[in-house]
Input
Amino acid sequence: MRVRAQFPNLRIAELVDRFGGLTRDEAVEAATQLVEALRPQADQEIHSAVVLLETGITVAEMENGSDASIRALFPLCDRIVTVAGIYGYAALDKASRSLGDLLVGLICAGKSDIASIQVHVRTIRLLALNSVALGEEQIATMLSELAKLLDYHGISSMGEPTASEF
Amino acid sequence: MLRGFGVETVLTANTGAETKELLDHHCPDICLIEGELPDLSCPGLIGWIRHHRNPAVHFVPIIVMSGYTQMRLVSAARDGGAHMVVRKPLSPQTLFDRLAWVASSDRAFLEAPNYVGPDRRFHSVSPSKEELKREGDRLVEIEANP
Output
């Protein structure tokens, strides 16, 4: 089998090597400010994703937890994990991540426990943008109950939000 | 985030078809691709890019952004010819460091009958076995830890 190996000159490599650009800290600081300016839109994004999740649950119930109806919740869960993670909504991040673990775990095991999903979605609703005033202790209790659900199903977490790469 | 890094031109596309249309008329310095596209599989789009007739597009560094529930995409995107898969959420620090790594790494670009893309075999592992160390290094360690 013939394999050709090349080392092409990439323009981005030349740009990185060029002297006179922003430092890493300056670039990160500028990006952080721009991201922060989008917080209102991000909050709205979370709100609409939660509404769609609730609709999705109703559909999943009507379809007796069909594979397709549970898979349809994946992108909504991803949207909440992404925005909550970027904007530092720690409790919401953990709850939505737990929902992601649950959905993937249920699909992999060929199960459809709508009740467990519903508990997650209701928790997400409560945690989303402080829709209800909750103390730290109450939040910790809610999150530990979600963890118990994952334990009950024998589902492990996919991990922390650090980038997985190769 | 990219604008914060000083990137002047950011082209965005909402679908795989729009991406192809853009790449037929522009040569980006880097491509950030969502793991899930509405009309095309991510590996399918990467494969299309890797067989593009324009060398500037053909060799372009590709970073795939995977959602939390899409980790199964990692191997598919890697085998499709992506440089890196990162999992969202992405902080500005993480994105900057990944971009810098992709830009500065000197991985070979391979063209084989069943694969076109950056060399997937790379490691940055330090020697761990004692017998592989140079005699001088062992002496320094012994002196430092008597």
Q: What stands out?
A: The helical segments of chain A are 11-17, 24-37, 39-62, 67-71, 74-86, 90-109, 114-127, 136-153. Chain A is about 70% helix and 0% strand. The beta strands of chain A are 4-6. Chain A touches chain B through 50 residues (CB under 8 Å).
